[in-house]
Amino acid sequence: MIAVGQRLPDATLSELTADGVVEHQIRELFAQKKVVLFAVPGAFTPTCSNAHLPGFVALADEIKAKGVDLIVCVSVNDAFVMKAWGEQQNASEIMMLGDGSAAFAKALGLEFDTGNFGGVRSRRYSMLLDDSVVKILNLEAPKAFEVSDAHTMLAALNA
């Protein structure tokens, strides 16, 4: 499992833009940037839609004011679903990236299998990255939502 002090593995995440689906190489995208990345088990799911993503939407300006270049939301969904979810949540300040095959979650060691409910998904977490190196990792216990929220990340950035 990824830990504080480690560099993100090479991975590709997808984004639907006006020009179509763009495949981002994560290390390249995050190079020389301070990034808050948070992952959710699934777009349009209750906790993700009612609390996790909305918290980052509400605090995006305050988080970016702390020197954060990008706020990124990742889910084991395709780029089309992530785009639709971002629009529904008014998440214009958040980069919505799809990990359709869960390859990124697996590379991080942060995947879990929901069985027939949805298959392999990402665990819920937030992290602060500096040039793709993990500086903060807030990993949730299964079925919890206590430490990966936007308020906790903002408090850490203020510390």
Automatic annotation (TrEMBL):
GO process annotations (BP): cell redox homeostasis; cellular response to oxidative stress; hydrogen peroxide catabolic process
Name of one Pfam family that matches: Redoxin
UniProt keyword annotation of Membrane present: no
Cellular component, GO annotation: cytoplasm
EC number from the UniProt entry: 1.11.1.27
Alphabetic keyword roster: Antioxidant, Oxidoreductase, Peroxidase, Redox-active center
Entry superkingdom: Bacteria
InterPro entries in the record: PRX5-like, Redoxin, Thioredoxin-like_sf, Thioredoxin_domain
Active site per UniProt: C48 (cysteine sulfenic acid (-soh) intermediate)
Catalytic activity: a hydroperoxide + 2 glutathione = an alcohol + glutathione disulfide + H2O
CDD domains: PRX5_like (cd03013)
SUPFAM superfamilies named in the record: Thioredoxin-like (SSF52833)
Domain Thioredoxin intervals: 2-159
GO MF terms held by the record: thioredoxin peroxidase activity
Membrane-spanning parts: none
The family this protein is said to belong to: Belongs to the peroxiredoxin family. Prx5 subfamily.
Function: Thiol-specific peroxidase that catalyzes the reduction of hydrogen peroxide and organic hydroperoxides to water and alcohols, respectively. Plays a role in cell protection against oxidative stress by detoxifying peroxides.
UniProt-recorded name of the protein: Glutathione-dependent peroxiredoxin
